[in-house]
Amino acid sequence: MPKETIVVGSDHAGYDAKQDVIGYLGELGFEVLDVGCDNATDSVHYPEFASKLALAIRDGKANRGLLFCGSGIGICIAANRYPWIRAATVYNATIALYTRDHNDANVACFGGQHMGSLQIRDCVRVFLQTPFSGGVRHQHRIDMMTKGC
Q1: Cβ contact 65:107 at 8 Å
Q2: Is 149 a known active-site residue?
Q3: Residues with Cβ < 8 Å from 10, sequence gap 6 or more?
Q4: Where does the pLDDT of residue 1 fall: very low under 50, low under 70, confident under 90, or very high at 90 and above?
Q5: Domain residues for 63?
Q6: How many domains does the chain have?
Q7: What is the CATH number of the domain that holds 61?
Q8: What is the pTM of this model?
Q9: Is 69 a catalytic residue?
Q10: pLDDT tens-digit readout, 22-39
């Protein structure tokens, strides 16, 4: 059975957190598609990496992804510009669970400058292990967003 591929991306401020999670994803048995950036020292623009991740999902290279910037907010806003992406900024395991269970999010975003490695790893694990509940009220809300209310 092929391993699921998770696409990851970051700007310079989220680079170290991304690198740590890449190793953790390997421990969990996932394949990783890294769309950049390549270091923590050269200043880059997070919309570029949100775009690369979104296009990888659109093109079927992965079904889910993880994004990292300083706060997790900017890169999340950038990712949500793409209609096939439902990204959420995640900051604890409960939010990671709701992000999947209630919202069927396919991208979780993290603030590498505001969260510790163990906290991010816990959130990643919960996000990746939690299925969408399929609940009627939740699906109705997702359909409303998809159709533009």
Answers
A1: yes
A2: no
A3: 17, 18, 36, 37, 46, 49, 67, 68, 69, 75, 112
A4: low
A5: 5-147
A6: 1
A7: 3.40.1400.10
A8: 0.94
A9: yes
A10: 999 999 999 999 999 999
